[in-house]
Amino acid sequence: MQVAVVGAGVVGVCTAYFLAEAGHQVVVLERRNNVAEEASFGDSGILAPASIAPWAAPGATKSLLSHLFKSESPLLFNRMLDPSMWRWVRRWLKECDIERYQINRSRMQRIAFYSHEIMQQLRELHQLDYEQAPGYLQLFRSERDLQLAKPAFDFLTAHGIPHDFPDADGARAIEPALNPHTPLAGSLHLPTDESGNCPLFTRQIRQLAQAMGVEFHFGSNVKSIRQSEHGVDIRIDDHTFAADRVVLASGADSSKLLAPLGLHLPVHPVKSYSATATIRNFESAPVAALMDETYKVAITRMGNRIRIAGIAELGARTPDLRQAGLNTLLKVGYDWFPDACNYNTAAFWSGTSLMLPDGPPLIGATHVRNVYVNIGHGSTGWAMAAGSARVLADIVSDRTPDIDLDGLTPLRFR
Length: 414
Description:
Layout: E1 2-6, H1 10-21, E2 25-30, E3 46-47, H2 60-65, E4 75-77, H3 83-94, H4 98-126, E5 133-140, H5 143-148, H6 150-158, H7 168-174, E6 186-195, H8 198-211, E7 215-218, E8 222-227, E9 232-236, E10 239-243, E11 245-248, H9 254-258, E12 268-278, E13 289-292, E14 297-302, E15 305-314, H10 323-336, E16 347-355, E17 362-365, E18 371-375, H11 381-396
Parallel strand pairs: 1-2, 1-11, 2-7, 4-15, 5-13, 11-18
Antiparallel strand pairs: 3-6, 5-6, 8-9, 9-10, 12-15, 12-16, 13-14, 14-15, 17-18
Helix pairs in contact: 1-8, 1-11, 4-11
């Protein structure tokens, strides 16, 4: 069977790999000139299934709104009069109660832990090195931040996920370079989580996929998809490509391709930011990965560089870098590791991913024959990519996936 995958981010490339492994002829269609050139390019690098949780959480509204009019904020709004954005926000608000949070987090962690297992298999099978580092430390600046995180702590305990709560001194024992002058009320340490370099991993999987016969067509801008007698016709610029099946792993552009097929899903593009700086003082740099829970910004060690990534900007239509977003990244970098880098000279980036109001992605067949999706992973795309791809390949191949797919397929929005 010939399967076309639209999108060559980490989710699309992993999907192509597992489809080829299942015996299909696979073609990847990507508008950019290489893999991992959009949302995957500036990925935070966090591979943390234990800590994956929906943005829609108890207390999230109050926490985010408290930052809204400050010069440094984890949340930015653009196009304030955009009705589609506010429709999405209303649905997001409904998901913030404790019962919905527990359901959504369970669904996200089901695919994330499965993905972590598949990642380990890939790493061992192919001896992959993508600058991975073990351990993940979440930092809480105030007692209020700790209280807001209590539902997350309770979830970890209830599900037997390994974790501990180092105090400020304990956190600095794990990360000795943490700035002692930045207020720190406590931390959450997740020893089984890890971090790494997402674009590097994606390029490695591309090479493995190509060795299995996957064809990558770069500079291919997919304009539309329509059903045909034997499968689907995919219009690319001024010509048409035929395939038996198509899988959309096209991130933020997916809704434009799905809408003409009658697939109107409650997805919304969310822009994130990152800064990547070269380390100048290695003794002042982090050992592994951290998250500033106040500003929802991750700090990840990638070889001789540090990546600071986060921010959620709603309503953005362009890749422009807003100073408010950059201010937040710079503050977090200088607050925690002030002597590690000159963050002002970092390479700044922004990219857009597709997010659903409840958090879990959408994986599997749509109600349009021969059209499949692997979308909606938001900012946790890499942490779910391998598992989502394996599940999608099983579905296309009429095999029973290894995990329960309840709440992870397009059926939940029918």
